[in-house]
Specification:
This protein is an alpha/beta fold. It has one domain: 3-Layer(aba) Sandwich (Cytosolic phospholipase A2 catalytic domain). 42% of the residues lie in helices and 13% in strands. The strands form two sheets. Strands 1, 2, 4, 5, 6, 7, 8 and 9 form an eight-stranded mixed beta sheet that branches. It has a two-stranded antiparallel sheet with strand order 3-10. A hairpin with a 5-residue loop joins strand 4 and strand 5. Helix 1 packs antiparallel against helix 3. The radius of gyration is 20 Å and the shape is globular. The relative contact order is 0.19. GO terms for molecular function: hydrolase activity. It comes from Comamonas piscis. Keywords: Hydrolase, Lipid degradation, Lipid metabolism. This is Patatin-like phospholipase family protein.
């Protein structure tokens, strides 16, 4: 039987497909981690604008503790930025060491430094809305209902791109993925087809990351090889299946930024728009989680062959519950005090997860799917 695992540089992986059948011995060997005390894991990083600083805090806690080896990272929007910054920081240091444990230790510290450099740069922007200061947000919100970014931002100014290219050497990252750096999978939505596409390996560029974070009411669609892309959150926020197909471990830690549940019915315009935003950017993730849960139940009932199907273990840091009080509109706020506040809350959440659930890795799911 032919392998169900896509080729590493497959041109397109449709966002609505949720494949789980794999033949890991032939295509993706089972991962062993750094040593018996440092098992492998994959990360799934949700997008959410400046709320990605919360994810920075979680990643900082993981890298400081050094007890997990990150094999793969799937990220969308801000999650994609965190993914490439962390992977590059890890890889550039790990590549200088021949001893695997020393490489891991150096990589973790370098990843923390790269993430700090990136988010401190974000903190100097004040706003993520194409140069619009936070004081002008109300006017911008009103204008965006009637004018497109092709009118309000004709030069397609996006300071995040300059910052990203300053922090990440994409040519190095393309080469080192799966070697000294974690494999990275970035999702963007193809405007023409409406499907999510995965950018990894040689396709992982600054354009791909900016496409993954391209909100259509703020920025022009990003063109990549005659195709145009919008934010990956519409089709996979983040996508889980690349981590199932193209890594050799069975553990995924999801860092979620959008709350799933809402205790009250939204009543004013801002609350309604915030809730619509949360539902929209959680929809694809919930679909994949339901599919994974279905496969797990079939495996538990003995109706599927465990030699052909991965039994995935899901873990969860729920940033949505922590960030709900800020509201979706604050995702465009990126002044240094706010970014640092989100980082600290993420750091605490990451430390709590390590204390309470680190022992679940390789053993059981700490998150019901």
């Amino acid at each position: 039987m032919a392998s169900a695992v896509p080729q590493p540089d497959a041109p397109e992986l449709p966002g609505e497909q949720v494949p789980v059948e794999v033949e890991t011995p032939k295509r993706v060997p089972r991962s062993k981690g750094v040593d018996e005390n440092t098992p492998p894991i994959s990360l799934a990083l949700q997008g959410g604008g400046s709320h990605g600083a919360f994810t920075w805090g979680v990643l900082d806690a993981l890298m400081a503790e050094r007890s997990l080896w990150v094999e793969g990272i799937s990220g969308t929007s801000a999650g994609a930025m965190n993914a490439v910054v962390m992977a590059y920081g890890y890889g550039k240091a790990a590549a200088t060491e021949t001893d695997r444990l020393k490489a891991h230790q150096a990589g973790c510290e370098s990843a923390r430094e790269s993430l700090t450099q990136f988010w401190e740069g974000v903190g100097t922007m004040g706003s993520l809305m194409a140069g619009v200061p936070m004081a002008g947000k109300a006017i911008w919100d009103m204008m965006s209902q009637w004018l497109s970014p092709y009118q309000t931002n004709p030069l397609d100014i996006n300071p995040l791109r300059r910052l990203l290219e300053k922090v990440v050497d994409f040519e190095f990252l393309q080469h080192e993925q799966g070697r000294n750096a974690p494999r990275v999978f970035v999702c963007a939505t193809n405007v023409r087809t409406g499907k999510g596409e995965v950018f990894s390996g040689k396709r992982l560029t600054a354009d791909a990351v900016m496409a993954s974070a391209c909100l259509p009411m703020m920025y022009k669609a990003v063109e990549i090889k005659d195709q145009h892309y919008w934010d990956g959150g519409y089709s996979g926020n983040p996508l889980l299946y690349p981590l199932i197909y193209q890594t050799g471990n069975s553990d995924i830690l999801l860092v979620q930024l959008n709350p799933i549940e809402y205790s009250e019915v939204p009543s004013n315009v801002q609350e309604i728009m915030d809730r619509i935003n949360e539902i929209t950017f959680n929809a694809s993730l919930l679909a994949e989680l339901r599919a994974m849960g279905f496969v797990r139940r079939l495996l538990d009932d003995g109706k599927l062959d465990r030699e052909r199907y991965k039994y995935m273990l899901m873990h969860h840091v729920d940033g949505g519950a922590v960030l709900k009080s800020y509201g979706a509109s604050s995702k465009n706020r990126s002044d240094t005090p706010f970014v640092r506040e989100l980082f600290e809350r993420g750091r605490v959440s990451g430390e709590n997860w390590l204390t309470e659930h680190r022992g679940d890795v390789g053993v059981r799911s700490g998150f019901k799917v």
